[in-house]
Amino acid sequence: RGARAFAVPLGNRGVLKQALLRVGWPVQDVAGYHDGAALPLALVDGLDVRAYQEEAAEAFYQGGSAAGGSGVVVLPPGSGKTIVGLAAMARVRQRTLVLTTSRTSATQWRRELLSKTSLTPDQVASFGAGRRKAVAPVTLCTYQMLTTRARGSAAVAGGLVDDGEPSYPHLDLMRQHDWGLIVYDEVHLLPAPVFRLTAEIQARRRLGLTATLVREDGREGDVFSLIGPKRYDRPWRELERDGWIATADCCEVRLRLPEGERMDYALAEPRSRYRLAATTAAKDALVRAILALHADAPALVIGQYLDQLERLAAELDAPLITGQTRQAERERLFDDFRAGRLSRLVLSKVGNFALDLPDAALLVQVSGAFGSRQEEAQRLGRVLRPKARGAGASFYTLVTRETDEETFAHHRQRFLTEQGYAYRIMDAAEWLRPAPRPREQLN
Length: 443
Fold this sequence. Notes:
Helix content is about 35%, strand content about 15%. Strands 3-4-2-5-6-1-7 form a seven-stranded parallel beta sheet. A seven-stranded parallel beta sheet has the order 10-11-9-12-13-8-14, sandwiched between helices. The protein is of the alpha/beta class. The protein is globular.
C-alpha cells in the first residue's frame, strides 16, 4: 500500500506477471475480464458429464468470479478434456475461440460441439479451412495457422514488421473479435508467438487443457502466468482405478544393433548416432512379433523417421499417415479404423495428439523425438480410452541397447513413472527366439 502500490495499465498485466514470476513473485490476477459477445449455449439433454469433468469446469469458472475465468486443467489423454472445454463454454456462454494442434483436432472439436451442445453448424467455423478466414460465434483455429508468417508485400516486406520482428497476420484473429473465452487445447504446445500475444489479452477468459504440463523448453511458468494457474489435476492412476481410462501395460523391449551397424554407429556424429540406433531394421522383426502376439488388438505403430515408417508400412501392408497425408484421406483412414475395417495404422508424429481412436488397444513405438517426456506420455494416451468390458491396453517402446537411444528412453519415461506407471524390461531375444522343434525332429 502507499509507496508499495503502483498503477499498471491493464494491457501490460501479462508482461508484468511474467516479470514477477521470473524474480520469484507469482501473481494472483483478480483484475477481472472483458465480457465478449453473448452466445446462448447449453449442453444437450442427457449428456453424461462425469463428476470430475464438472469439477474441472467449475474449478476454472468459479461461479464467474474474478478469481476464476483463467487457468489450466490437467487430465490424462482419453479422460474427456474436450467435455471439460464444452462444460466451461456452457458456463461462460460467450463467443469462443478454440486453438488446437491440428486440423484433425479441429475436426474432432467441431464434431463434439455439434453433437453435444445446442450449437448449429452455422455457429461453428474452422478458420483456415475452406473459406480461409471464416469466423463464427465459435471459431476453431490451429496453432500452425495462427503462427503462419506473412509473405512479402508492400506493407510487410519479406514478412517482417518495421522493427524486424516476423509478422503473423492471423494473430489478429485473437485481437480483433469480441471473444469472451479462448480455449488453448494441448496448452503445453503453445508456440512462442502465441505466448507473446496472450500477454496482451489478459482481459479475456482463458482455459488451457493438457495431459502433460511438461515443456522441454522449461516454459511451464509462462503457461501459468499467461493462461492462469493450475485449477484442476487428477492423477492418471486414479482415473484408471475408477475405470475412466484403460489400464495400461508398459513394456520396453531392448535389442542390440546388428554387428554390421555397430561401426557405423561408433563413427557417426551424435545426432546421426541417435537416428541410426532408432531406425535399425533389426526392429522390424520385433514389430511383427509383437503384432502377432496381439493379433486381435487394433494396433498403432508410431515413430519419428519417415524412411523407417515407410519400410514398416510396406512390410505390414498397413496405411501410413504422415504430415503429407491429405486431410480427407486421414479422416477416411481414421473412420475405417474406428469402424473396424482397418486393424492397423502406421503413424508419424502427427499421431502424437488429439486422435479419437477409442478402440486402439496396442501401440508400438519404434522411434521418438530424442528424450521428450511429453511425447512419451501423449503416445501412451493414444490407447487409454476406455475399452469394452474393461479391457486393457498395451504400450511397447523399442530401444536399442548400449546406444544414445537407451539413455534418451530413460528420460522419456520419467513423467509416466511419476504418474505411477512401471515399465517391464524385456530383451528382444525373448520375442525372436526360434520356436522349439517337435521332439521327433530332434532325434
